[in-house]
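Page 37, continued from 36.
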């Protein structure tokens, strides 16, 4: 069983305030977990919450948590994320970000939020990538 450690989130007081840490470090000897992009795919393989950015972001987080659990990790072991939203509307990016930020709560890991032209699955609007670290 992996020992869940506190990922060290680093603030940058000389930079503008942001709703996430500017950097994070993994503990010495940590096992790094590189997760594929978590997609809004249901158990039957279909895209869920078609047309609903927030709904898709929520399913991405659910699927991310399942992948983390299989790797013997959890959200608090994540050291960075990348949130991809297939939209040119800033409001869609914000809608996805609000769901992701709420899921991580005070563990506000460094993150990049991107608007992209298209994602891999039919009707897919959101994808969440993550890197985690645990000490075995």
């Amino acid at each position: 069983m992996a020992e869940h450690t506190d990922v060290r989130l680093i603030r940058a007081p000389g930079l503008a305030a942001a709703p996430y840490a500017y950097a994070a470090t993994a503990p010495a000897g940590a096992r790094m977990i590189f997760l594929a992009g978590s997609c809004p795919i249901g158990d039957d393989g279909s895209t869920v919450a078609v047309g609903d950015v927030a709904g898709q972001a929520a399913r991405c987080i659910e699927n991310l948590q399942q992948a983390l659990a299989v790797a013997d990790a959890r959200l608090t072991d994540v050291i960075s994320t990348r949130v991809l939203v297939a939209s040119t509307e800033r409001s869609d990016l914000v809608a996805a970000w609000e769901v992701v930020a709420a899921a991580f709560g005070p563990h506000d890991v460094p993150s990049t939020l991107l608007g992209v032209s298209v994602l891999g699955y039919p009707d897919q609007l959101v994808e969440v990538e993550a890197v985690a670290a645990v000490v075995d």
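The mean pLDDT is 94. Flag for discussion at group meeting. The chain has one domain: 18-134.
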